[in-house]
Every structure is written in C-alpha cells, then in structure tokens.
Amino acid sequence: MFEYYFKLGLRSLRRNRALTALMILTLAVGVAASVSTVTILHAMSGDPLPHKSDRLFVPMIDILPLKGYVPGEKPSFSQSQISYIDAQNFMRSKIGVRRAVMYGVAGPVEPMRKDLGVFNAQGMAPTRDFFAMFEPPFLYGQPWSEADDASGADVIVLSRALSEKLVGSANPVGQRVTVLGRPYLVTGVLATWDVVPRAHHIIGTKGAFGPEDEFFMPFASAIRHETEHDGGMSCNGDNNAPGYQGRLASGCTWLQFWFEMASSGERGQLQQYLDAYAGEQRKLGRMKRNAPNRLYDLNEWMGFLQVVDNDNKLAAWLAFGFLLLCLVNTIGLLLAKFSVRASEVGIRRALGATRRDIFSQFLIETSVIGLAGGVLGLLLAFGALAVVSQQSEDLGTVAHMDIPMLLLTFAMSVLAALVAGLLPTWRACQVTPAIQLKSQ
C-alpha cells in the first residue's frame, strides 16, 4: 500500500504544479535557513577531542593584586592565562600524564626558493607533550625529542601548507628553514589539521576558528631567543618589571597551560594539588586574594571563553522561528490543496476506504513534499554556507556541512512536512461521504 500511496502522492503533486512548487519552496527556504545556522553552531560548539576532553584541564589561579578585589566575583578573561613562574612550577610538578605550556609566535619566513620572497607566518611555541596531548596527525617525521625540548634546540615542526609552500611535495625533514631570522631543523610535518574549534589555544590572534598554525617550535627555544609572543598579555599581577627577562620574573600572564590526567576521576587530585600550590605561593607573598582555584576541562573551557556566544545561540533560535513561520504557511497551502479534493475523498470513502487509509495516503503525499523540500533545502543550504564562508577566513572554517548535518537536513525537511500535514490530513479524514456524493 505504501508504494500505491506514494504513486498517488506523486500524481497529486502534478495536478497543481504552481501550488506544489510554492509549498516545496516555502519548506526548502525554512529548512535551509535553520540547517545552515545549526550547521555553523554545530561546528563551533563541537568537541575536538571527544575521547579525552574530560581528561584535559586548564588551571586558573588568581595572582592579581588585592586592591579592587570583590570576594565571590566571577573570574575574568585576563585570568585565563598564567605567568612564566607558575608555568615552570606546573611543569616541574609531574602531576598528571602530560603537561604542556605554550604561547603564540609569529614572524618572517625566508624560503630557499628564489621565486618566493620573505613572508610572515603564525605559529606556536609549545612543549613536546602538546603533540601527544592534542594529537595532530603527522605527514612526515615526528615531534622533536625530549632532549630537544629540555635544551631548547632550534628545531621545528611545519604545517603541511607551509611545507608545500617552501619545498613543494618533497619531504623537508632533515632540512633547515629560516624562521624568525634563525635556521631551524625540521623534525616533522603535520598533515592537514583543521580541528574546529581550536580549543588548545583559543586565546590569541587567531581565536577558536582561525586557520591552523603554520609552524611549531620548542617553548624553551622560543624563551631562549626571547621570542615575542603573538597574543594577549596582562601585567596587573605582582613584581612587574620591564624587559623580556623582567617579564619572565614578573606576574605578567601570557601563557596557556594544560594538564592531561589519566582519567576524569583524577580531577579531584589535580584540584588538591592546585589548592596546595596556591597555599605555598601565598606564603611567599603571592596570590593575596585567596580566590578559589578553578579547573576547566576542555568543554568547560570553551564555555568559559564563550566560544559560542549568546548571539550565535540567538541566531539559531531565530532560524528555527523562521522555519516555524514557513511551516505555518505550508499548513495553509496544504489546507487549500486538500480542501479542493473533498469529492475525491468522499468517493474513496464510499468505495470502502477507511479514515486510516485516507490519513495514510495524504500523510505519505505530504512526506513526498518534504523529500522534495529537503533536496531543494539542501542545495539552498550549501549555497548559503558558501556565501557565509566568503565573508571571512574564520567563518570559512565552520561553514561546511558534514554527514550528520546532511542527514539532519532530510530528516528535518520530512519531519517538518509531516508536522505541517497533520492538521490538513486530519481535516481531510473528516469528510462525510454522503454529503459529497449528493453534491456530485
């Protein structure tokens, strides 16, 4: 019977092509608007490391002056980074499976190719555990060694894009590239790493949805060469002093730190360490506010930094509101379409069709409209996302549709059509055969 009703639905759509096209277009526009918005929101709020996000923690301690402090106030964004002193202490703590400290760097790259001039590139200076912690895929080579990490050797890992720009498709491992005015030995090349959001280093000039970093050099090497940071810094802490060495000895906060624990159940152990550390620092005259020490896992961290802000959520609700408006219009069009078929329903009922048969027929017909609206809505959504991606590089990283969102488009379209068709279908089932036969 399903196949029979499906064919009836297709025939019915050809009877009034203008009205059918209007219903499909109305449904497609509503679905496209909502799906394209939800697609962007889905990409922005996605978990980049779902298998370990509850084991990755950002510590937040308050080393700001006591003046102006209001007990119980929420931590500010300026407290989301730590000082060099605290980073070194955390690295020596041996707490957890891995520890990583990092900061953004940027500067000129001098290619060996004569046809390519000097250009600027942005990268990061992390410790070696960064690679095992956030799992970027390698195309060639590997991260630098623990000895390189400890000594601050002049080694570097390139992104695939930067490697291809410098040497084409060749393997550059073992060669030297001049970055920031110094030669660095290439130990590895990452494969394309388009993780979204870039939760590992949201704070910086690129943000959560910027393009991938172009190179990675050891944290100790960057510090040894007094490489300037590329990102935000707050110097409202204690013992501030001028110069690079003064910054290292001061309370200026400009570094990002991550702990990786063996399991999410070890969060309490890490919290105890953080509280004990703050207590020791207060004995040394630091952390006078005695503010609560906080831990954020990866998803909590993105929430704290408002990776998906209220404007994005409001846009999603408005898109669904627009879809609801389109459904209301579709309901009106379906009522108009089904009302002129009252005589057909009356004859079918007189010939023995039950209300259930009529309901099934019209509902399947409505689902056909939903499928057609889904195909058109998908095309419109792809077009909308293409337009959005052209607005900025950041939007280009999130304005793309994956398989789950593709399936959601069809499911949403068919479901929306079925919901819209419930009232018209119910009204069609209420037709009294006797009255319709007398009017013929």
Automatic annotation (TrEMBL):
Pfam families xrefs: FtsX, MacB_PCD
A GO MF label: transmembrane transporter activity
Subcellular location, principal: membrane
Topology with respect to the bilayer: Multi-pass membrane protein
Gene Ontology CC entries for this record: plasma membrane
Keywords of this entry: Cell membrane, Membrane, Transmembrane, Transmembrane helix
UniProt key word Repeat: no
Domain ABC3 transporter permease C-terminal: 318-432
UniProt keyword Transmembrane helix, yes or no: yes
Sequence ranges assigned to domain MacB-like periplasmic core in this UniProt record: 20-226
Positions of transmembrane segments: 314-338, 358-383, 403-423
Location relative to the cell: Cell membrane
InterPro entries listed in its UniProt record: ABC3_permease_C, MacB_PCD, Macrolide_Exporter_MacB
PANTHER family named among the record's database cross-references: ABC-TYPE MACROLIDE FAMILY EXPORT SYSTEM PERMEASE COMPONENT 2, MEMBRANE COMPONENT OF TRANSPORTER-RELATED
Protein name: Putative ABC transport system permease protein
Native species: Janthinobacterium psychrotolerans
Phylogenetic lineage: Bacteria, Pseudomonadati, Pseudomonadota, Betaproteobacteria, Burkholderiales
